[in-house]
Amino acid sequence: MRNIRQYGEAIDPRGEAQLKLLAECYASAKNYFGSRYSGPKSLMQLKRHRQNIRDPLMQTDVPETFRLTARYWKLALDESVAGIKSEWANTRNRVRKAAARNPNLSSDEKHYLNFVLRWDVILSAILCHQPFEAPDKLPEIGERTHAIHNLIRRYIRKYHGAAPIAKRKASFMVDSAMYRYRQIDGTLYLEITGIDKGQRIRIKLRDHNRHTGNLRIVLTDQGVVINTAVEVPTMQKRPENRILGIDKGYTSLFATSTDHEYGTDLGKLLSAETERLNEKNRKRNRIWAQINTLELVGDKVKAQRIRDHNFGAIKKNRQNNRFREQAKSCINHGIRQMIKIERPDVVVAEELTFQSWQKKLSKQVKRKLTRWMKGYIQERLNFICELSGIFVLLVNPAYTSQICHHCGSFGKRAGKTFTCPSCGSMDADINAAHNIRDRLTDPKIRLTTSYEKVKLILEKRQPAKPAV
Ligand SMILES: [Zn+2]
After folding, report:
1. If you measure from the C-alpha of residue 257 to the centroid of ligand 1, how many angstroms do you get, rounded to a whole number?
2. 344 CA distance to ligand 1 centroid (A)?
3. In this predicted model, what pLDDT tens digit does every residue of 78-119 receive, in sequence order?
4. Residue 349 C-alpha to ligand 1 middle, in angstroms?
5. 398 Cα–ligand 1 center, Å
6. Closest-CA residue to 416 (of 401, 430, 428)
7. Residue-wise pLDDT tens digits, 44-89
8. Neighbours of 136 (CB within 10 A)
9. 322/326 Cα distance (integer angstroms)
10. Which residues are registered as beta bridge partners of 3?
11. DSSP summary character for residue 466
12. How far apart, in whole angstroms, are the C-alpha atoms of residue 270 and residue 26?
């Protein structure tokens, strides 16, 4: 499992306040459960906590005090119980170690103690001073029994930590029935159940990934972070899984870590469009010069006529639309070809800020890469992959186009060529696609690792300079 983060923000101050209140109520409920059920008396109830804790709770007035819908406090309970259980596991380990170090215990007594620690029924009975039926496997320790039980109680008091208390009340969970995705005007929103029945809180997302299962919503100063665990097949465990790294190409839609390029006509289309726009601008400038001259000499009528005939929106819109339709078709075709030929299980892309793409392209082309096109590529990639059951995972883009994927050296990029000081020249986009793919299994570089930190990590990995 791999934790995936998604970033977003509440759409208005009201939504933000609702999220805050929700997180506070959720944390309070969790803290209540933590303090109520982490003691030895509740040890046996944890086993089947839904029957033993949740169902009886529903018969009481307690849930009303949480000011949460049933779904929310039940999730808070599940989380809280999971935390308490792991705290008990820690306690057992600490007691086991302490007993092993204790010189006053015989090996039978240590054996007895370890046995008790493994059996909740017996441990619970001892902690609550209740009689229990000793199983045959429990070693006989005779008259020392009483002293050892006292020791166990002392150990537990000493090592069983307090219930985990949430100090920062800024996160909560939602299960799959408590949220849905909604796409409006090219933007994806996450809508989650609010604090009151029927209320929905909308979060504007910065990407187009739709997740399933439980989500953890974390409120930070920078906005809302949505955490979700996604099962990622690792190359080591399941070699049959194909993980494809992709990078936005210099002259194509995507370059891949399998040394292919897709959507090569997009590059041609873009340069043709750039050419057309430049030509048009030249013509326009000539006409403006003509109008200015006419106005200077006082021929207002003719100036107006030229204006009316040359700056109409109809032709301009028609040409822009034609370009858009052609680009859309290139993009869709390119993505489909890539999926069809590569048959990936996972597509790894840079966090889709398109930063590097912008850097790679000339100023003229950049102007053409309007918002809709970037959004459109993201949306289609996610949509087509989702239809085919392919995960799109994002990785940290830092330096993926500046290091050699063979040896890790920092190299130089000039246009479509990357030059490594040791390995020589190679295709820059393909090299970046390899690096992006490798980022998925990078042990150190995470999505949120800062640029500076990535640089330090990469510098440590520089191969030794060959002796001259
Ligand atoms: Zn190299």
Report:
1. 16
2. 26
3. 999 988 998 898 899 899 999 999 999 998 999 999 999 988
4. 22
5. 17
6. 428
7. 999 899 999 999 999 999 999 999 999 999 999 999 998 899 889 8
8. 4
9. 6
10. 229
11. P
12. 51
